Structure formats: C-alpha cells, structure tokens
Amino acid sequence: MKGALSLVILISVVTYCQPKLDLGAPLPIGGDFSYPDKSGKMVSLKDFSEPVLLVFFGYTQCPDFCPNMLSKIKLAQSHLPSETKKSFRTIFISIDPVRDGSDVVQKYVEFYLDSSNGYSFPSEITAKLVKQYAAYVAETKDGSTIDHSTYVYVLDKNRKTRVLLKSTDTAEHFADTIKLLSSDSI
C-alpha cells in the first residue's frame, strides 16, 4: 500500500511539473494569403489540406539557419506518430527573389522534407509577406548574405498563426506543437 501511494504521488508530481503547451489565442501576424508566385501559379494557404502549416522565411544560399531549421523540422517529424506525420506541411518562402527561382526553392526544400512546398514570389509580394508576418529581413553590407528572422510560424486549420517556434526550441517541442494543433481539440 505504501509503495502504491508513493507511485501515485510520484506520477502526480511528474505530471504537474511537465511543461504544458498553451497556444492561447491566435497571434495578430501571419495567416493566409493569396498571391501568384514567380511562375504565375496562385498560392493560397487555405488550399492546403493539412491542418497544420509551418511557414518559414529563408533563402537557398543561406549558410546556416535555413539548413539547420529545415533539418530540425525533419527531426521533429521523426518524433511524430505515423498518422500525425501527414497532418502538417512546411511552406518555405524565399526572401531572395532575385537569386531564387520557384523551381530552385522547391528542390531546395524537398531536399530536406517530403511534405513541403517552396515558393519564390516577385519582390513586391515578398515584401508584403515579410510585413504581414512581421519577419525581419536585411541584406548584409557586402550583399552576399541576408540577415533574417528564424521563426517558424505555426498556422492552424483556419490559417491563423498560433505560435512562433524559435531556432533554439527542440525538435521535440516542434513535434509536440504539431501534435497539439493537429488534434481535434484545438
């Protein structure tokens, strides 16, 4: 009896101390859009069937953050049950429309993730999307690289931004967020 009581207390303490994901209300940034990419194809996030979208701004010549973040998303995918793996898609938006064509961006993101789409929009549309998502983008002085924010914007089935994942978050945290949003409880 004493051992059973100790086990119940231990489980209660561990459960209570576990950090819980609280997504709260949708954030006032990001969300759906409908624009033609550089190839002329209309892109609207509402057209995707997956209940969770991970939107990420980057570019194919990025030396560090973009490859690392896409690799982290792939690792997060390995932490998901098989049925949940199909519940999200990564949307990679190039912030370098001068050097990144639509086909190059798609091949780049597919190298890391099967369930992904990569887009390059004309410069004026890219600027609108960067503003809509409150992303940070600045060309370096030498023009060879672009400083940019590394958040992953997590959108729910209504295409509202629910949370920003940071580059310092673990792959497990990414996976937990995807699991939570892909469930019917949200």
Structural class by helix and strand composition: alpha/beta
- Count of extended strands: 9
The CATH class is identified as Alpha Beta
Poorly predicted segments: 3-19
The CATH H-level homologous superfamily: Glutaredoxin
Total number of helical segments? 6
Count of folded domains: 1
CATH topology title: Glutaredoxin
Biggest sheet record: 5 strands, mixed
Mean pLDDT, all residues: 88
Estimated share of beta-strand residues: 15-25%
Q: What is the CATH architecture descriptor? A: 3-Layer(aba) Sandwich
- End-to-end separation: 39 Å
Helix content: 25-40%
Structure, described:
With about 190 residues, the chain is of the alpha/beta class. The chain has a single domain (about 25-180), classed as Glutaredoxin. The chain is about 35% helix and about 20% strand. Mean pLDDT is about 90; it is low at about 5-20.
Descriptive key words:
36% helix; two-stranded antiparallel ribbon; disulfide bond; Glutaredoxin; alpha/beta; Thioredoxin-like_sf; 186 residues; copper; SCO family protein
